[in-house]
Amino acid sequence: MKYKIADIIVDLDVQYPRLKKQIAPYEYDEAANVNVEIRLTEALYQAYLETYPDIEREMIEYIALGNEYYTALIHFNGMLIHSSCVVYDGRAYLFSAPCGTGKSTHTQLWLKRFPDAYILNDDKPAIRICSDGIFAYGTPFSGKTDLNVNERVPIGGICMVERSETNSIERISDEEALFGILDQTVRPQEEEIMDKLLRVIDKIVRNVPVYRLKCNMELEAAEVAYNGMKGVN
After folding, report:
1. N or C: which end of the chain has fewer CB within 10 A?
2. Backbone angles phi, psi at 50, to 5 degrees
């Protein structure tokens, strides 16, 4: 079956209900050449089971196809960033942090504070450098939730989230942004692909503002984040 994910035509053999449900909005039946074909082998399933003996095959499919897709994405000037991505006022804002920090909790504050906001992807949005700009994309791989939308939206900003009792936001240097993003993506083992990924990240941080957001769980946090990225004092 063909799917269009981040404007890439992907041929995937999806077997299990979880991914079948989440990937349905990405089905693509137009005549077009396939850009990427991904198949999971029984050997790969067994390798996952040896490492994680309690994991179900359905979850292996979800994780492994996601990993294979995001590795392929690097060859198309793209990458994943482990983040929750919210869209408001025509721009995508990505909030990235280690698991448990509260990035999804923060984007839920945006939904409460800004009624027109919505989640593009709650865990693994794609970013692509295109001829007409740098865009965030929804993908069917959205972590523990099924919060994802099959859209492409220009990026307004990327935030590295830290917990704090008070809310503040500041722009960080390109170097700090590069390493921050690198910590929140899949690192390929192959040196050649890793070099491509670093070039993608370098171009992103040179063209997209990256911030450090220190925040609590109050609605004010959403206001501080949005105003900071829009340049409002």
Report:
1. C
2. -65, -35
pLDDT at 186 over 90: no
3-state secondary structure 122-191: CCCCEEEEECCEEEEECCCCCCCCCCECCCEEEEEEEEEEEECCCCEEEECCHHHHHHHHHCCCCCCCCH
Q: How far apart are CA 94 and CA 122, in angstroms?
A: 9
Tokens found for residue 113: 């504070």
Name which of 180, 185, 183, 187 is nearest 209 in CA terms: 180
Q: What is the DSSP letter of 26?
A: G
Task: Give the residue carrying structure tokens 């970013």.
Answer: 127
Which amino acid, one-letter code, is at 175? E
Q: Are 128 and 76 in contact (CB under 8 A)?
A: yes
Q: Is the pLDDT of residue 232 over 60?
A: no
Query: Over the stretch 118-160, which tens digit does the pLDDT of each residue have?
Result: 999 999 999 999 999 999 999 999 888 889 999 999 999 999 9
- Predicted local confidence at residue 58, as pLDDT: 95
Largest Cα–Cα separation, the chain: 56
pLDDT at 1 over 80: yes
Q: What is the pTM of this model?
A: 0.93
Q: Are 126 and 137 in contact (CB under 8 A)?
A: yes
Specify whether the CB–CB gap between 164 and 44 falls below 8 A. no
Task: Name 142's Cβ contacts closer than 8 Å, sequence gap at least 6.
Answer: 22, 121, 122, 123, 124, 148
Q: What is the distance between the alpha carbons of residues 28 and 198, in angstroms, rounded to a whole number?
A: 30
> Do the beta carbons of residue 91 and residue 156 sit within 8 Å?
yes
